[in-house]
Amino acid sequence: MKKRIMDLGYNSFEDLNLNSAKSIRVEPELDFSLLINPLGNPFDQPDSGLDFSKATKNASQRLTQYPDNRYSEFRDSVASFFENTILPEQVVPGNGSCELVKLVFECTVNEGDKVVIVQPATKLFEKYCNIHGAETMHIMEDEIQDIDPSDIQDAKVMFLSNPSDVSGKLVEENVLKKLSEICIQTNTLLFVNESCIDFADESASLISITRSNNNLFVLRSLDTMFAIPGIRVGFGVTSPEMAVKLNSARLSWNLGVVSEKVAISLMRRDDLSKNYLAKTRKYISENQEYLVDRLSKIRKFRVLPGDSHYVLVDISASSIGSTELTHRLLDAGIKVKDCSNLYSMGQDFIRVSVRSKEATDNLVREIGIAVVDSARDKAMEKLETSLLSPEFSAIGPNKTCPYYPCHFQGQDCTFCFCPFYPCGNERTGGKWVERSSGGKVWSCEGCNIVHLPDVAKKLVCELRVDSPMEEKLKKTWKKVVEPLL
Ligand code: SF4
User: For residues 170 and 307, is the Cβ–Cβ distance under 8 A?
Assistant: First the structure.
């Protein structure tokens, strides 16, 4: 085994580890993490006019035959989908987009070669840089308009998603065209992943300039366009010369007859499939604004502007990290994209795809619950640890806190997060209020009890008792708080 494959290790591919907790696949009720067509696949939509059984009927008659490895019918159908602005000879079929990324790496990158990745980007490009021992250079999407040929001199390939499959941002056409020119100059292959472009702005596509450009490879994914990731079909469009080489090097028979037939039915009936994509864009425009508006109303959440059917949300100012938030939401049956394993993202970002208004309401409500639960759990953990130390006592006013005084001058801040939260007892002065992001939340604004210096001292004293937290909270509430109500 090559050393660098040995070095990959399981943590790179957590989801392949049969022993990992995640190996039991949990289908969330609501999945906001996917980039596939939010309307689902057209075969499920009676009015789409596209019929899966008809599409696969022919395939079942050919199960005993090897597919035609030239895939001429498939490549013709792709060319017709683009109204013959490209030639079938320019098309490279792929068993999903992953296989085409792998193929391009195998054909262009040697160990030590320089590869440029425009960030933020999902992990796939980096995975193959590791596998091929490439020298990876990361350029942030906001820097590409200032790229100079000397910046990417000697780079074999530059990988860019348009729109970005993380931020959803589209690269301006003139910037992209300039980049393509620079890549010709430096003899770098510009690999543009346009898997989500149909949901953003197809006119920004570079497909129309591939025929005469040996330094350009444009990737499209039927899995994403038509929400059929189970079928695994993608294709690349490049110059006829490049396509000959890549098709010679690709896996033989990389598309099965079923995938091929389904793909051809979608590409051939471009009237129906384009109607479906237009319907999808309408659905996105009807629901995107609502998603942005609702997420923006969550305290300390900042939605970054994007151009496609998903948004990047900056949660760096909130008290919860992206992995914890993602896990808590998954426990509630909702999946969002945790961006923590992506380049330069840390625990500060989640990506959320457009879904229906009702689904968005559920998401926002569960985020609100997750943030409060996380703060309470952290406060309880901190309190439990503090109570173990004999020196621990009521701390009095915390004047260094930017929110001091959140209740009254001279308040005690030991129980910044009340251990009884949410007590739900309105005699305290607390009450249920409408959350800015919708739903109800318990507000302690009107309650001073745990901030009264003498009460805080008594609470510390009572909670120091060596018994399970839940039990002693009940006892302490009865002994210290109840008499004050
Ligand atoms: S209302 Fe008062 S006692 Fe109840 S959870 Fe809030 S701070 Fe604690």
Answer: yes
Q: 401-429: per-residue pLDDT in tens?
A: 888 888 899 999 999 889 999 999 999 99
Mutate to test the pocket of ligand 1, among 407, 416, 442, 444 (most ligand atoms within 8 A of CB): 444
**Are 138 and 278 within one domain?**
yes
Report the number of distinct structural domains present in the chain.
Answer: 2
Give residue 113's domain range: 1-380
Among 373, 380, 415, 423, which residue has the most ligand 1 atoms within 8 Å of its CB, making it the best to mutate?
A: 423
User: Residue of the nearest CA to atom 5 in ligand 1?
Assistant: 421
Cα 231 to the center of its chain, rounded Å: 21
- β-strands 114-119, 135-140 pairing: parallel
User: Are 249 and 395 in a shared domain?
Assistant: no
Q: How confident is the model at residue 17 (pLDDT cuts 50, 70, 90)?
A: low
Q: Do residues 160 and 192 make contact, with C-beta atoms less than 8 angstroms apart?
A: yes
Query: Which CATH number goes with the domain that contains 346?
Result: 3.40.640.10
- Which residues, at least 6 apart from 51, have a Cβ–Cβ distance to it below 8 Å? 43, 265
Q: What's this model's pTM, rounded to 2 decimal places?
A: 0.88
Show the tokens assigned to 65: 């035959």
Q: Which atom of ligand 1 is the closest one to the Cα of 451?
A: 7
- Write out pLDDT tens, residues 111-126: 999 999 999 999 999 9
Q: Is the pLDDT of residue 320 over 80?
A: yes
pLDDT tens readout for residues 433-466: 887 666 788 899 899 999 999 999 999 999 988 8
Q: Answer with the one of 361, 380, 399 that is the final residue of a domain.
A: 380
